[in-house]
Amino acid sequence: MGTYLVRRLLIALPSLLGISVVLFTVLALAPGDPFEEMATNPNIPPEVRLALREKFGIDDPVYLRYFRWLAAMMQGDWGFSFASRVDVDTLILQRLPATIFVIGSSQILALAIALPVGIYAATRPYSVFDQIANTFAFIGFSLPTFFTGLLFILVFSIWLDWLPFVYRSDISATGWRWYWEQIRQAIMPVMVLGLFQAASYTRYVRSAVLDVIRLDFVTTARAKGLGEKTVVVRHVVRNALIPVVTLVALQMPTVFGGAIVTEQIFRIPGIGSLLISAILANDTPVIMAVTFVFACLVVTFNLIADVLYGWLDPRIAFR
Amino acid sequence: MNETEIHGMVADVKEGKLSRRGFMQRLAAFGVAAPTAWHILDFHGVAQAQSLTAYKPTKAGGGGPLKILLWQAPTLLNPHFAIGTKDQEGSRVFYEPLAGWDTDGNLVPFLAAEIPSRENGSVSADGLSVTWKLKPNVKWHDGKPFTADDCLFTAEYAADAATAATTIGTYKDIKIEKVNDLTIKITFAKPTPFWADAFVGAAGMILPKHVFEPFKGAASRDAPANLKPVGTSAYKFIDFKPGDILRGERNADYHIANQPHFDTIEVKGGGDAVSAARAVIQTGEFDYAWNMQVEDEILLRMERGGRGKAIPVSSGNIEFIMLNTTDPWTEVDGERSSVKTKHPSLTDPAVRAAINLLIDRDSVEKFIYGRGGRATANFVNAPPRYVSPNMKYEFSIDKANKLLDDAGWVRGADGIRAKGGIRLKYVFQTSINAPRQKTQAIIKQAAQRAGIDIELKSVTASVFFSSDVANPDTYSKFYCDMQMYTTTMLQPDPERFMLQLVSWEIADKEDKWQGRNISRYSSAEADAAFREAQNSLDPARRTALFIRMNDIFCGAHIIVPVLARTRMAASSNNLVVQPSGWDLDLWMLNAWFRP
Fold first, then answer.
1. Is B318 at the interface with chain A, CB within 8 A?
2. What is the pTM of this model?
3. In this predicted complex, what is the ipTM?
4. Least confident of A23-27, B154-158, B528-532, B567-571
5. Inter-chain CB proximity A33 and B76 less than 8 Å
6. B71, B64, B110, B220: which is closest to B156 by C-alpha?
7. Separation CA B310–CA B303 (nearest Å)
């Protein structure tokens, strides 16, 4: 297990390096200029823009910029944002809590819906409940989050006027009122992300449970005279959840990706909206850092999924 | 009416033969708007009435929170690092300049005790210096007094190339002396009629010396105050997260009595323009939002809810089309659209005049931009004193056809006109932006009916407006026959703006396409007019020269103006804001209130 982990981590390093090269090249090839807005401003002489570009090293050849970035990164220096002249790691740390709160809650919501619904549907396949659950699951993962997000805003904020649609990171209220405001503003984004995830998880849980429920040991358990509840919870679900756990771990990076759009719609100050504003401002160091964080997440969660799988299912050996 | 007549009338006012009011009325009869008349009188030392803002509250505070939504959020709070207007707006919440511009183009003092003028001698007669008197007893948010040293330091800080300030252009060529603790004197290298640049408006915000002194030059990025400003304004800093939220509280020691009205201020960022408009106009979650790049139709629909409204503010921005008289399709010395080449058909004035007749400006205004623009035939549209009365626009396909017929451009079998084997086929580019594509389509249709074939091209804004030397699709390269975009005029004086029309600013390979004159057209008369206006201390003469430049370019249809753009903001119905087209949206935040 120990050597397996070390080996996996060593493999992860070159892939991260490769990812960083690709990201950097793509960003360098993409058109745009962080000081674009100055170009159409008659009050700023062009020399100012050129001097800034030179000072921030934007005019150097790509490979030189890449090695400079890599060397700094090795020493833990993420560089600074061209737009705010603040260190990138500070910016990301500032944004992380909001993202983790929203994504964490939406995952909990997704699992809280998907597990009971998926299991119940699988134990009674093709029943009315199963049909309804399936239909909703299909609708749920066919509707993109940007659409449901706008729909929710239209219904709950504009027509009904119940919920705010601008997420605020510092609510001035204290005590219970603070929690209440926090929940009120988080309901819509968490629902949008959570329901989307719940829909696909439901499908996975259902099929995983269906796979297991037909196996011989389940029949044996029933034959032993165990109650239906014990059979499902202790024998079926425990085995069926092994692939689901890996799936949830593997889905995490996708969830972060999906949250980018949701964050933008609800103005949640998370790393997703940081990425979007950085892309719009051509703020290369920030784009680089955030995408790199996403890349690290993908690699890490892959590793976690593998390790979890082996741990949950001893038949799988670490080699 | 010419300069001599105006001079004569000013003399009459001075001698008391003609009242101020009579002067204004007489000028109005000639189409000169009141603010212009004021300025002419002001220049000649006839006292002006300061444009006043009706601030009602009788005590400071008590207004509760003020919530502003800037969907393009400020990312830093040092006004001299500001990359775009968003950062300047954020900084303006805490910092103040000596004076700002109101919407008529008048100066309003903030940290200055009074506005310098020729009358009291603080603007020197030779145009070489200006003396500002600072307001006494102003305190920085940390309690230290504001003095002339802070002004001197700000200029020195911004002018230092190592600081990498974006305002360096304003401060690098001026000399500033401290006369005493509350008086500074700015000296210019040559006579400068437009003296109100340094310490005025968006680029003029003054930094505290005692806070920024250790962080001058190369260390500028490390200053904690870049994100935690200490200013003199009506609101004190509480908290800032770049790109997300900015909070402030009422400054109890503010130097203007009974201001500000609000107890706290919150500036939230992120999202897009449409949903920002919605949060202010429709749901009322926020009190104010800026830069409403939203189609007017959508705004009108939201306004029906009755909670908020859109506020159009006229500005100097102009949406215009540029016709290329150089050849964009032939490469000479490594560049296309070189001044060494001539366009095969657009060099014919009749063709350019015909294209001008084919632009249905009224429809563009009515159906596309709504309150967001006003059809115009002029390049300079504000302040009123600089607007040429000589240019007219008209939409007439018949007249265009006749012009082209007379000039010998004959329709071919496919309906497209040609002469000597040269066909009237053009590529027309602009940036990707829904109203622009609609405008392009309207023009293409009209042109077709006059036998001109226009191919439409749209380029992503981030490419079109980039300074990427390697990219052929940027607006400054102008590698096509016609293009359309908006250029901004940020000061109520057109001198900088007019640089776009002079020969030494022509964009070419040599200056890496950084030159301001994108059209590449030049006229010896316009050059001479600009040079004279730069040093002319007589505003009437200066105005006449700028109007002449406008007429040369618009008359030759090199510049084909479409709309004078307005700046749109959204405000809640129970908020009184102080908009200005010549300064930042938040330029007079101290005087906002709830009625």
1. no
2. 0.80
3. 0.76
4. A23-27
5. no
6. B220
7. 8
